[in-house]
Structure formats: C-alpha cells, structure tokens
Amino acid sequence: MAKPVHAAVPVIGAAVFLAVACNAAPRPGGTSTTATTDTATAIESATATAGASVSAAPPAMIKVPDVSGMNHQDAQDAMQAAGLYNLREVDSSGKKRMMIIDRNWCQTGQDPKPGTVVSAGTVVTLYADKC
C-alpha cells in the first residue's frame, strides 16, 4: 500500500482564508502551508455554504447601446456602463490591425445591432477603423 504524501500547497492571496478555515494565525512571511484533512474539510464546508446561497435568478437582460460614430474607447465605456463586458474588437478595414490606442479608432459597426435586448454575458463585437 502506498504511503500518504504530505505536500506543501502554495497560499497566494488566501492566507487569511486558510488561517480562518484552520482556526490558526497566518505565518508571517510564509508563502506556503501544509495541507491537512481539516483544511480540506473547512474549504469544502465553505464552498457548500457559498453554493447554497446562490439563487437561480434569470440572467439580466440589457438593451445594447448605439455606439456608432464614437471613438473606440468611448464605445467600450458605453457598453460597460450598460453592463456588457464580453467585448470583441475587429478592424473593419480587413487588415487585421490591433487597436493599440483605442481613441485613434472610430466605430463603423457593431453586432448585435443597437436596441437589441441581450443577456449580460453576450459577446458584443465592435467594428472600428482608424479615425
């Protein structure tokens, strides 16, 4: 039968969570801790508690704003202000250029069309060309 292996698990940004879950204070300057059954049990318990509070609410529906003629940065800001964060950008000239400085690009189109009602996770494609 194989022996159980105790491995060091990196703790990056979760030191406080593990300290609370393990009922111990975090080690100053430490970046790792040894995983134990108590830690795993505490994490599973916390995960189950968090999952229990999630409701099955329908996704938010958002009206797509009209960003035609705006510079690309303002168009992105308008989409995000409306609650649309899954944005894709395309060079409408067909040259496949990258939009490095967004304010130097002007909107030439968008998909879905302005006024369309979509869910918050919908991909919105912004077409732009150099101003």
UniProtKB/TrEMBL annotation:
Q: List the PROSITE patterns.
A: PASTA, PROKAR_LIPOPROTEIN
Where is the secretion signal located? 1-24
Which residue intervals define the domain PASTA in the entry?
A: 58-130
Could you list this entry's UniProt keywords, alphabetically sorted: Signal
List where the protein spans the membrane.
none
Q: Does the keyword Metal-binding apply?
A: no
Official protein name in the record:
PASTA domain-containing protein
Species annotation = Amycolatopsis silviterrae
